[in-house]
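If it is no trouble, might I ask you for a protein's amino acid sequence along with its backbone structure tokens?
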Amino acid sequence: MPDPRPKPPAGGIKATYPGFIAPALATPIGKVPSGERWVHEIKFDGYRVQVHLRDAAVKVFTRRGNDWTNRFRKIAADAWHINAGSAIIDGEVVVPPKNGTTDFPVLQNELKGRSKKIVMVAFDLLYLNGYDLRKVPLFERKALLNKIIAETDIQFSESFEVDGAEMYKHACKTGLEGVVSKVRNSRYVSGRINDWVKKTCAQRETLSIAGFALDGNKWDGLYLARQKGKELVYAGKVDHGFDTASAKDLQARLKPLIRKTQPYSKKIAHPGIWVEPSLLAEIEYTGRNLRRARCAIRSSRASGRTCDEAGMTPDKRLQDPHCADHAEWRGCGQSRFRLDLEDE
């Protein structure tokens, strides 16, 4: 490994290697803070990890302390080049797409194999060369972090000393997950803290319902579809938050629409009961998390044909006054997309 190695700053406490450290968690807020005491970082749509380097060996832990080194082999290989004898780094694993945003479902797919596309974005340094840095101010920890990863493929999460509201506006406009704001001289404290706060970008989208799932006779959620050009593609599954009444109502409304084959242009592996995609769900979500949904059946006609027959996409059907006039909205409960990995 390259030398010389950076020395810990004043305030670092000489300590034995502590092992896994419960992560600091940002508190959700309604408004991004402003003022000179705050710095702002991009909120990534990825997977929270903690990288440990000790005696030239690397381990990668999930936010709950599970050892996923084997699953994150590329991250471990990248971290081996960190300029330190021992270090504990907090960060996020992402798949960086071409448009600069990050996408958690893409990350899930990448992890089904041993992907070489994933990267780690590092945003904090907890321990370095025998010193516990958790009581060192954030801006000093990040300066050290930037130095020790400079010659690696690990990316550094910049802190921006700008107006928080403006940064949030720009983040949402460009399709980012949101903003994490931190007190610039804050310590690293495990658990949910007020010195770290986050605001995600709420987005709305109208998706077709492609089917539903039953666990025995019990309601197990909806399969959603998104129109991409002429293709109808899988957009996720909503399987939490339905109350008994809304689940019973939805199942009754979907039964007349049942078909034998999947409506997706490309089949998915999930088992389900498939329907004609004429029932729509309007969703509001932040990043990968669905917050609210409402459902509508389109049964009106456009130019003598149903809205579906007229070739309208779900979004166009919502905007079309002929369709909207006959839309019946029903609550779907507080729901979330199912995640196959540990969520943060």
Notes: The chain is about 15% helix and 35% strand.
